[in-house]
Design brief:
Structural class: alpha+beta
Number of strands: 11
Strand content: over 45%
């Protein structure tokens, strides 16, 4: 009798352990949808909050003072590393970078603060500088969601606008002619030209800027 009671209690204990283990596994198991592809990355964020690359420019400058391995670029007195051993008085081509601090509200409106131009690299020729700049600013065509078109009237004159949703989550509003208003009226997607501006120190971080309609 005692032996039967012992085995009954042991069986009950094992069942309890199995139930607890099952509940623990259910809570710890990650859903299949949380794969690397769906978790996202900095390049696929839906909003552009924080610091993002904004633009690059190539300009000619003159080397001024040499300071401990650096040089001063004239006329703006900007200090940069003298990697190519330029001398005072040399003419150089300078690749400069502008950054933006962006805040996007719940309605998709952007508050943008632009930085000053910052020289990041010098070159002996304009062709070398423009080649580097061209690899950091890339123009592409892509389809985007058309939120809608609308028109306003003032003093009997109409103005037409289109609002599109960029891949970054930004919303852009652009004036359009009446012909494009009619063409876009019943569309859900349209093709646009975007300029991808990549960060020179982290190419995967980029900013997509609207550069026109592709249709």
């Amino acid at each position: 009798m005692k032996q039967g009671r012992f085995w009954l209690m042991a069986a009950g204990f094992v069942v309890c352990i199995l139930i607890i283990w099952g509940i623990s596994s259910a809570f710890n198991k990650k859903p299949a949808v949380l794969s690397k592809a769906t978790l996202g990355s900095p390049a696929s964020t839906s909003s552009m909050n924080g610091e993002v690359p904004w633009d690059y420019q190539v300009q000619q400058a003159k080397v001024g003072d040499l300071l401990d391995g650096d040089m001063v670029l004239l006329p703006n007195n900007e200090r940069i590393s003298n990697d190519q051993n330029f001398a005072t008085g040399d003419q150089v081509w300078v690749l400069s970078y502008m950054q933006a601090t962006m805040k996007t509200d719940n309605q998709g409106k952007n508050d943008v603060t632009l930085s000053q131009w910052k020289p990041i690299k010098t070159f002996k020729t304009k062709e070398e500088a423009e080649k580097d700049a061209g690899e950091l600013k890339i123009e592409i065509k892509t389809d985007v969601k058309l939120i809608g078109v609308y028109k306003t009237e003032q003093d009997g004159k109409f103005r037409y606008f289109a609002v599109a949703d960029l891949p970054t989550g930004q919303k852009v509003k652009q004036p359009i002619p009446e012909e494009r208003y009619v063409n876009f009226k019943n569309k859900k997607e349209v093709q646009v030209v975007l300029e991808e501006v990549h960060d020179y120190s982290n190419f995967d971080q980029s900013m997509a800027k609207f550069r026109g309609w592709a249709e």
